[in-house]
Specification:
The protein has seven helices and eight strands, in the order αβββββββααααβαα. By secondary structure, it is of the alpha+beta class. Among the domains are: 51 residues, no CATH class; 101 residues, 2-Layer Sandwich (Tetrahydropterin Synthase, Chain A), CATH 3.30.479.30.
C-alpha cells in the first residue's frame, strides 16, 4: 500500500471553483450596480448609512460607496427647475384687493436640507412667494403697489429667498415673474364687500336703536317703580308716625287718669262694634220674631226683614238680648 494522501477527484474540485466563480461574479455585479454612481456636473449624491447622512458625493465622474443595503444613495440635481404657476390674493395697506399670478425657477443650495427636511420643494417655494407678496402688499397703498412694475418681481424674489433661508429649506429662487391684475378686475368682489359692509352698518344701526329703545323703556319702568315705592314708603312712615304720636299722647293721658282713659277706650271700642249691629228690644217672655231668631247650625240665613218691635211689658225694664 502507498502512504501518499488520497487526492480529491477532479470533478469535485472543479465544482468548488465554479461556485467561487459564481459568488465572485454575483458580488462584482452587485458592487457594479449598487456600489458605483455616475454623476453629471450639476448632480449630487447623498449617501446614508443606517438612516444617517455620512457624506455627499459631487462632481462629474464615477464615485464609489458601499453597496446597498450597507449604504443608500439619493441623487439630486442642482440645476434650476421650474415650479407650477401660482396665484395669490393680496390686500394693500388701504384695503385694495389685487390678484397676483407668479411663476419661475428655483435651485437647490443645500441638498441634504432639501431632500430630508421638506416634503415638497415646489410647495415650499409657492408658500414663500405667496407670503412675500402678502407682506409687500401691506407695506404699500393700492396705487403704489400697482406701479411697482418689474421691481415687484425682484422685491418678491428677495423676500421669498429670505423666507426660505430663515427656515432652512436649502432652496433659492433663481428667477421669478409676477403679474398683477388691476383692481378693476376684482370690482365685482369689491362691490360685494361694500354691500356686506353696508348691510353690517345697517344692522348695527338697527341694533343700536333697538337697544336704546329698550334701555329707555327700562329706565322709565324703573323710575315708575322707584317713585311708587318711595310714595308707599312715605305713606307707611307717615301712618306709623301718626299712630306712634297718638299712642304716646294716649299713654301720657293714661298715666294721669288711668280709669278715665280705660273707660274711654272701652266706650269707643263698644261704639265701633255696636255701630254696625242691629239692636232689637223684645219682651223676655215672648218668642223672638222669625226675622231675628238664630238659624240652626248649617242652615242658610234668609233675607233680612224689618219687623215691628214686640210689646214691652210695663213691669220690667227693657234688656238687651
Amino acid at each position: 500500500m502507498s502512504d501518499e494522501p488520497a487526492r480529491p477527484p477532479r470533478r469535485r474540485r472543479g465544482r468548488g471553483l465554479f461556485s467561487l466563480f459564481l459568488i465572485a461574479a454575483f458580488a462584482g455585479a452587485w458592487v457594479a450596480l449598487y456600489g458605483f454612481v455616475e454623476l453629471a456636473d450639476d448632480e449630487v449624491a447623498l449617501v446614508t448609512r443606517g438612516g444617517r447622512l455620512v457624506r455627499e458625493l459631487e462632481g462629474p465622474g464615477r464615485h464609489v460607496h458601499w453597496p446597498f443595503p450597507i449604504e443608500r444613495r439619493f441623487l439630486l440635481s442642482r440645476a434650476a427647475r421650474g415650479f407650477p404657476e401660482g396665484r395669490a390674493s393680496v390686500v394693500t395697506r388701504d384695503a385694495q384687493l389685487f390678484e397676483a399670478r407668479y411663476s419661475g425657477r428655483y435651485r437647490v443650495d443645500d441638498p441634504a436640507a432639501a431632500r430630508f427636511g421638506l416634503r415638497s420643494a415646489e410647495g415650499a417655494v409657492d408658500i414663500a412667494v405667496g407670503a412675500a407678496l402678502a407682506a409687500l402688499a401691506t407695506e404699500h397703498a393700492g396705487e403704489g403697489f400697482a406701479h411697482l412694475g418689474a421691481r415687484l418681481a425682484d422685491m418678491t424674489r428677495r423676500a421669498a429667498d429670505t423666507w426660505l433661508r430663515e427656515r432652512g429649506t436649502g432652496l433659492r429662487i433663481a428667477s421669478l415673474s409676477v403679474d398683477l391684475e388691476a383692481p378693476s378686475a376684482v370690482a365685482e368682489l369689491d362691490a360685494e364687500i361694500a354691500d356686506l359692509q353696508s348691510r353690517r352698518d345697517s344692522l348695527a344701526a338697527a341694533t343700536r336703536e333697538e337697544t336704546e329703545a329698550l334701555l329707555s323703556a327700562a329706565r322709565i319702568r324703573a323710575l315708575d317703580v322707584t317713585t311708587a315705592a318711595r310714595l308707599e314708603h312715605d305713606a307707611l312712615v307717615s301712618r306709623a308716625s301718626g299712630e306712634a304720636a297718638r299712642f304716646r299722647a294716649l299713654a301720657a293721658e293714661y298715666r294721669r287718669a288711668p280709669e278715665v282713659v280705660r273707660t274711654r277706650i272701652y266706650l269707643e271700642t263698644m261704639e265701633t262694634i255696636l255701630g254696625s249691629a242691629r239692636v232689637v228690644v223684645a219682651d223676655p217672655g215672648a218668642p223672638l220674631p222669625a226675622a231675628v231668631a238664630p238659624s240652626p247650625a248649617g242652615a242658610p240665613r234668609g233675607p233680612s226683614t224689618t219687623a215691628p218691635p214686640p210689646a214691652v211689658s210695663s213691669g220690667a225694664p227693657p234688656e238687651a238680648p
